């Protein structure tokens, strides 16, 4: 076989390998609704545009929430790829805690068969998670998008039934992503990670932005994360830090008080 043929064969293998990899971002975008102006939507789009699938938490429950997702979808479509999106119904939550979830995805290699739905669990789960099944190069992966109650309201109490649902009701491969308001080493995750064939993308990686920067530190609380079943091959994980410098903190907090979390993976 000639060197030229080998070269094109290697290029083909490389392209196929890259196309089989999926870039996933999960992000709690604070108060994602009508208060986000066009410049902020554009900044958000630039941060997430290289993803294939995006899961968003804290979409405003009123009409401004779906509108903001649609504006982000429109902005992403202006950046060279064709996107689709789905927004959940409003969660059935205690007063002032309801919100929506959203997914956005590139249409080239990713398909869906329905628009997803909220999962009704025990009433102790304040915001029902949003489940959507994606077909990536004809391989299915289920993604559960979830925002746990605040840290001072015992989020572990409601995380437990969510984990039970993942283990017992959802077919693998499976991803559980969102803002858990608990670190991954919290006791509620122990059995899930040790005995139930699940792993976690980030270990003690801080994801919440402080109100002010002190001694060069502007991050705290490692509470945003991605859990995944063992039949998913993970290639890279990280926190997307779009702040980097203290003097950018206040501008960054106009977008969100959380940083996005990223995982590149391949389906077996």
Structure notes:
This protein has 268 residues and is α+β, with helices and mostly antiparallel strands. Helices cover 26% and strands 35% of the residues. It is built from six helices and 15 strands. The strands form three sheets. Strands 5, 6, 7, 8, 9, 10 and 13 form a seven-stranded mixed sheet that branches. Strands 3-4-2-1-15-14 form a six-stranded mixed sheet. Strands 11-12 form a two-stranded antiparallel sheet. Strand 7 (130-136) and strand 8 form a beta hairpin. Helix 2 (38-48) packs across helix 3 (64-77). The longest helix has 18 residues, at 3-20. It starts with a helix and ends with a strand.
- Which residues form runs of ≥5 with pLDDT under 50? 4-17
Largest sheet report = 7 strands, mixed
Mean pLDDT: 92
How much helix, percentage-wise, in residues?
25-40%
Distance between the termini: 30 Å
Strand content: 35-45%
Number of strands: 15
Give the number of helices. 6
The SSE string, one letter per element, is HEHEHEEEEEEHEHEEEEEHE
Rg, Cα atoms, Å? 19 Å
The secondary structure category is alpha+beta
């Amino acid at each position: 076989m000639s060197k030229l043929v080998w070269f094109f064969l290697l290029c083909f293998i490389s392209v196929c390998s890259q196309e089989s990899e999926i870039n996933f971002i999960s992000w709690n975008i604070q108060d994602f609704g009508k208060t986000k102006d066009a410049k902020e939507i554009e900044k958000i789009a630039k941060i997430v545009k290289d993803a294939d699938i995006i899961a968003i938490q804290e979409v405003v429950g009123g009409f401004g929430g779906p509108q903001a997702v649609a504006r982000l979808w429109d902005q992403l479509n202006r950046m060279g790829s064709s996107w689709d999106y789905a927004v959940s119904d409003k969660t059935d939550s205690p007063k002032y805690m309801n919100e929506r979830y959203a997914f956005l995805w590139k249409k080239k290699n990713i398909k869906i068969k329905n628009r997803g739905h909220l999962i009704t669990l025990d009433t102790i789960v304040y915001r029902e998670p949003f489940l959507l099944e994606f077909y990536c190069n004809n391989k299915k992966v289920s993604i559960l998008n979830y925002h746990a109650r605040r840290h001072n309201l015992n989020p572990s109490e409601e995380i437990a039934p969510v984990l039970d649902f993942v283990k017992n009701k959802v077919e693998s491969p499976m991803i559980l992503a969102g803002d858990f308001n608990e670190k991954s080493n919290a006791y509620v995750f122990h059995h899930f990670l040790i005995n139930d064939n699940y792993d976690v993308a980030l270990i003690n990686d801080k994801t919440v932005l402080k109100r002010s920067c002190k001694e060069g530190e502007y991050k705290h609380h490692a509470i945003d994360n991605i859990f995944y079943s063992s039949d998913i091959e993970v290639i890279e994980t990280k926190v997307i830090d779009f702040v980097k410098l203290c003097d950018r903190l206040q501008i960054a907090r106009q977008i969100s008080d959380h940083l996005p979390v990223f995982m590149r993976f391949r389906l077996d």
